[in-house]
């Protein structure tokens, strides 16, 4: 009998340790395929399972050995209600020059009509309300304030253009699933405060 795939394991309420070991054992192409094949309800369940993980670190997104201004791509799939083609995207991360403690990044999306959605990622340690959600927050309230790699899109705030409908006043909280895979959940800040949204997404680092 063939080994179960990731979706089958989540539906069977497998432990995080079992899920992580399964993903770590896959070839890179299979890992990306399984991680980004999960529909919304399954991603929501994986988010809850990943609450048992140690807090994710910035080094998950850009490994420590990676130099500054050297992008790392994380193919992903979100659960926004739209055709599956538009659910596919990549978050691209980079270490800024001559500093630690944060990453710059943007979303490379099949939704070409929406601007890239720049962000700054940093640890949630010290934020009492944020830390239980995940060890790293991807913050769209902020955009890079220093150079980004050559060839990346122009940096624009998320308060302008069609991207305002997607990224404005939002943050993504991240949890670790395996050595390459993470899962995020979006939140939005409005007059009522910071509200968790029923939108999740998976990422799989491409080494």
Question: What are the key terms here?
Answer:
single chain, 8-stranded antiparallel β-barrel, alpha+beta, 207 residues, 6 helices
Question: What does this protein structure show overall?
Answer:
This protein is α+β, with helices and mostly antiparallel strands. The chain has one domain (6-204). It is 20% helix and 29% strand. It is built from six helices and eight strands. The protein has helices at residues 6-11, 16-25, 28-35, 40-49, 58-61, 84-87; strands at 72-78, 88-94, 103-109, 119-123, 136-139, 170-176, 181-190, 193-204. The chain has an eight-stranded antiparallel β-barrel. A hairpin with a 4-residue loop joins β6 and β7. The model has no long low-confidence stretch (mean pLDDT 94).
Give the integer mean of the pLDDT values.
94
Residue windows where pLDDT falls under 50 for at least 5 positions:
none
- Major beta-sheet overview: 8 strands, antiparallel, barrel
Backbone shape: globular
Structural class of the helices, strands and pairings? alpha+beta
The helix tally amounts to 6
Q: How far do the termini sit from each other?
A: 30 Å
* Number of β-strand runs: 8
Evaluate the radius of gyration.
Answer: 16 Å
Side-by-side strand order of the widest sheet: 1-2-3-4-5-6-7-8
- What fraction strand? 25-35%
